[in-house]
Amino acid sequence: MWQKKLFGGLLFLCLLLVSPAALAEENMIFVDASGMTGYYINKDSVVWGSETRPVVGSNQTETVTTVDAEVAVVRADLNRRFLYSMHFVPGNMTYEIRHSEVQAYDTKEIIESKGPEGGTQKYTGSSMLKEVVDFIEDLPRS
Q1: How many domains are contained in the chain?
Q2: What is the tens place of the pLDDT at every residue in 31-89?
Q3: DSSP the chain
Q4: How far is CA 40 from CA 43, 44, 54, 70, 139, in A?
Q5: Residue 22 pLDDT
Q6: Per-residue model confidence as pLDDT tens digits over 77-99
Q7: Domain range holding 42?
Q8: What is the pTM (predicted TM-score) of this model?
Q9: C-alpha separations of 8 from 27, 66, 102 in Å
């Protein structure tokens, strides 16, 4: 049992060390890790915008800031990379997955690809998505 954990930990560490070189062509930037899972964003994919939405319970509308970005979630222990094209509304703490792919991490072979999933979802202040959005918000805007 301890050998599996040791091997998984060493594999994760090796992939984290190799990740900057392997992900550089996509301009992926490491955000944070939780256990065996690493979170990255593609710096070149970040697009800020705004949307006008109806205010619930009234006839008024509001303009909210939005940000689109490609987010990668790497599970080194599973040799998987999950790529998400995401749309965030930071002020509402919501997101939408516009497209997703599951890839073999080492070869980037696409195992599964999906279109939009689940509509608008909330994230919490303690979730890794909040960390990702905070990281994006701290990037210089061009």
Answers
A1: 1
A2: 999 999 999 999 999 999 999 988 889 999 999 999 999 999 999 899 999 999 999 99
A3: -HHHHHHHHHHHHHHHHHHHHHHGGGTEEEEEEETTEEEEEEGGG-EEEEEEEEPTTSS-EEEEEEEEEEEEEEEGGGTEEEEEEEEEEGGGTEEEEEEEEEEETTT--EEEEE--EEEEEE--TTSHHHHHHHHHHHSPP-
A4: 9, 12, 32, 9, 13
A5: 44
A6: 999 999 999 999 999 999 999 99
A7: 2-138
A8: 0.77
A9: 26, 37, 20
Per the listing, tokens 């301890």 go with 2
Position of tokens 């997703």?
A: 100
Tokens representing residue 60 in the block: 């008024």
